[in-house]
Amino acid sequence: xIVPFLVPxxxxxxxxxxxEARLTQxxxxxxxGSNAVCVFVNxxxxxxxxxxxxxxxxxxxxxxxxxxxxxxxxxAKRLGIAVARVPAYSPEAVSEHxxxxxxxxxxxxxxxxxRVREGNFALDGLLGFxxxxxxxxxxxxxxxxxxxxxxxxGFGCKVIAYDVVPNTACAALGVAYTTLxxxxxxxxxxxxxxxxxxxxxxxxxxxxIARMKHGxxxxxxxxxxxxxxxxxxxxxxSGAIGHLGLDVYEEEEDLFFEDMSSEVIQDDxxxxxxxxxxxxxxxxxxxxxxxxxxxxAATTMENLSSFETTGQAMNQLAA
Length: 319
Known about the structure:
By secondary structure, this protein is of the alpha/beta class. The chain folds into two domains: 3-89 and 289-318, NAD(P)-binding Rossmann-like Domain (Rossmann fold); 91-281, Rossmann fold (3-Layer(aba) Sandwich), CATH 3.40.50. Helices cover 37% and strands 14% of the residues. The protein has helices spanning 3-10, 47-56, 73-79, 91-106, 109-117, 143-154, 168-172, 180-186, 206-211, 229-238, 268-274, 290-310, and strands spanning 36-39, 60-63, 82-84, 135-139, 158-162, 176-177, 189-192, 216-220, 241-246, 279-281, 316-318. The chain has a seven-stranded parallel beta sheet with strand order 6-5-4-7-8-9-10, sandwiched between helices. The longest helix is centred in the C-terminal third of the chain and has 21 residues, at 290-310. The chain is globular. The model has no long low-confidence stretch (mean pLDDT 95).
């Protein structure tokens, strides 16, 4: 999916070799003969993989993503391997996808689509609610979170937010910052837009769900492990969570970006989620727009060119 964008971005400056296999310790050897490796969100870049890279003479790992929780930065620094990322490509792409999930769940578009294709035009079970006047809580107000805030304000929603570092640009839009507990208690819709860290892993667990407004909608387009899947399933069963929209999943590396249609999916928790009619899951496609892929490819190649000429990538994280 990225090949048509990377090739023109590389031009004559870089020679690209594409490997279909996902990066693991076993497949890392396929980088032999290269000076750099370009990876994506579900590639494994732990110490064992980085050691293989070091032995192969790899100098830099270029991420085609903003997130870097799949990379052992301490090991990279210790081994002298640079790591660079794409900090901002098209935040509007993810923001708009998050809002698409909200709209689809609110008005039961996913259920209506399936019904109409079967000739069923009954409206039973498709009752939605007006977004106008609802309270939307945004957790994490970087570029994507601010984008969601801007769109939801346009719908006439009240938008509140929580972030360890409040964003003045977001506040200037009319967004009110509050504590996480207050946000969970007041928001009709909670949308997650945080990086995955030790502090944010399972931010939405059983205790957080108990503090949420009963029947609230929960949206996650950030990182799957922000949500404790087992706790969310219990929340769906009890009605504590009224709607759930996911573009990420904490065990997605075994599923997403692959065609599993002819296989039996072994992840019981994921299969359980799909049984709920008020759950909508997309396969990490929030970033998947022409504009975003073009920006990702351009920044990735700029990182590599900068490292090649100066020894320092433009958006370097380690080494």
